[in-house]
Specification:
With 204 residues, this protein is α+β, with helices and mostly antiparallel strands. It has helices at 2-10, 25-35, 55-64, 69-73, 86-99, 105-119, 123-147, 160-167, 197-200, and strands at 47-52, 76-83, 151-155, 173-182. It has a domain at 12-87 and 124-186: NADH Oxidase (3-Layer(aba) Sandwich). The longest helix is centred in the middle third of the chain and has 25 residues, at 123-147. The model has no long low-confidence stretch (mean pLDDT 97).
């Protein structure tokens, strides 16, 4: 518990990254494995992560992000992807629970029916939920990076169509945000001041 609290209080956004730092695919997969634990509506898991590591793709992604240096300097820049039609892939995701006897057929059928009721044929609801899922997985990913001694910087300053083209997204996918992760370089700001708690919370 202490480690989680320390991560919440210690993580900060970085703009300056050590451009000489590289991460192995296994190190990146460790971060993704932690981010993959993120909860999603009905367990649709309607997100994806694309780890951009090659110099060529970083340069292309940087151009699509208005030239932000951290896109190219960080060891890895993730494209957090929102996935439409998550309800359609849900049955395959929860069938192992049915096969293992953790839920019965009635629970399985009801789970899918409720999910379809909320999202089937409703592209706006699907998109909004994918953005929520992308935001949650992004935060988990940044905490995972912090726990491993790395820094991160999230970005929404990019051209969505250009980013989609760079990483080859399908018509049912869209970029939610970019997250640069790596070792810090000099010049990053300290943590920014937060509002007073009494300004944040109201009791009802």
């Amino acid at each position: 518990m202490t480690g989680i609290i320390e991560a919440i209080k210690g993580r900060t956004s970085a703009n300056n990254f050590d451009a000489t730092h590289q991460m192995t695919h296994d190190e990146i997969k460790e971060l993704v494995a932690l981010a993959n634990e993120t909860p999603t509506s009905f367990n649709m898991q309607n997100f994806g992560l694309i780890a951009v590591v090659s110099p060529q793709k970083k340069a292309e992604l940087k151009a699509a992000a208005f030239g932000q240096p951290k896109v190219g300097d960080a060891a890895v820049t993730f494209v957090v992807v929102g996935k439409m039609k998550g309800n359609e892939t849900l049955p395959a995701l929860i069938k192992p629970m049915l096969d293992a006897g953790a839920i019965d057929q009635a629970a399985f059928d009801g789970w899918i029916a409720k999910c379809n009721g909320m999202y089937a044929g409703k592209p706006q609801a699907q998109r909004e939920e994918a953005i929520r899922s992308g935001g949650l997985v992004a935060m988990t990913l940044m905490y995972a990076a912090h726990a491993k001694g790395l820094v991160s910087g999230a970005m929404i300053g990019f051209m969505p169509d250009a980013v989609s083209k760079v990483v080859g997204l399908t018509d049912d996918e869209f970029p939610v945000m970019l997250i640069a992760i790596g070792r810090p370089a000099a010049g990053n700001w300290p943590r920014k001041v937060r509002r007073a708690i009494d300004e944040v919370v109201k009791f009802a």
